[in-house]
Amino acid sequence: MSKKARISPRKSPKQQRSQGLVETILTATTRILTKGGYETATTNRVAEIAGVSIGSLYQYFPNKEALIGAVIDRTVEGNVRKVERELKKLGDEPIEEALRLIIRMAFEMYMGNRPLFRVMFEQAPRLERVQNIFRARRHIAGLLGALLESYGIHPRNRELTMFVLMNGALGVIQTAVFDFPEGVADQDMIDEIVRLVMGYLKELKNP
């Protein structure tokens, strides 16, 4: 990528029609990244799959970098909304079951589209999206911290505890996106992550 390459959209769509156009373009980009990876996501290919003219695409996205950066932003925002919705659905489950549901959701979110997340993790630093990802992660950590407190778990340093907890669990899942151990069933991996998290929480409750 040229140092002068633009990594953000030219403009934001204001009207419903233009919003639909941008959504179609980003959906097509996501499909291409999922099936063929980063190299296949050219602007011409995206316009073709989206069924729009290259001129319409360039109205909003000056280049491939801006397109993929927007896909990263869109995916992160969508995942945050999904987590927020799922947290609201939690009932009176015991804490281990509640955390198992959340961990399973995160696991399926990442592992359900490994090719896309590989591209995101590889390209996020180059496209200056890392801070966006961390910002979203901190937001979710705050929500999970409130969930733990609802179960009577009050860490001395909530921010530090949630940093360790989030990165411990997500670190395993994100590594699995690139290097999932052979012969390991999804359920076994989820069980191990739950064991990791519950062991940490047990230490917090019984220092």
The radius of gyration over CA amounts to 19 Å
How many E-type strands? 0
Low-confidence stretches: none
Percent in strands: under 5%
Please tally the helical runs, counting DSSP H or I stretches of 4 or more residues.
Answer: 9
Rounded mean pLDDT is: 91
Spell out the helices and strands N to C: HHHHHHHHH
Computed structural class: mainly alpha
Report the CATH superfamily of the domain at 72-205: Tetracycline Repressor, domain 2
Terminus-to-terminus distance = 50 Å
Per CATH, what is the topology of the domain at 72-205? Tetracycline Repressor, domain 2
Q: What's the level 1 CATH class of the domain at 72-205? A: Mainly Alpha
What is the assembly state of the chains in this entry? single chain
> Architecture of the domain at 72-205, according to CATH?
Orthogonal Bundle
Helix content: over 70%
Biggest pleated-sheet summary: none
Write a concise keyword list for the protein shown above:
207 residues, 73% helix, mainly alpha, single chain, 9 helices, Tetracycline Repressor, domain 2, elongated
Overview of the molecule:
With 207 residues, this protein is mostly helical. The chain has a domain of 134 residues: Tetracycline Repressor, domain 2, CATH 1.10.357. It has nine helices and no strands. It starts with 15 loop residues before the first helix and ends with a helix.
Overview in brief:
The chain has nine helices and no strands. The protein is mostly helical.
Topology (elements, then pairings):
Blueprint: H1 16-36, H2 43-50, H3 54-60, H4 64-89, H5 95-111, H6 114-123, H7 130-150, H8 158-178, H9 186-205
Helix pairs in contact: 1-2, 1-4, 1-6, 4-5, 4-7, 5-8, 5-9, 7-8, 8-9
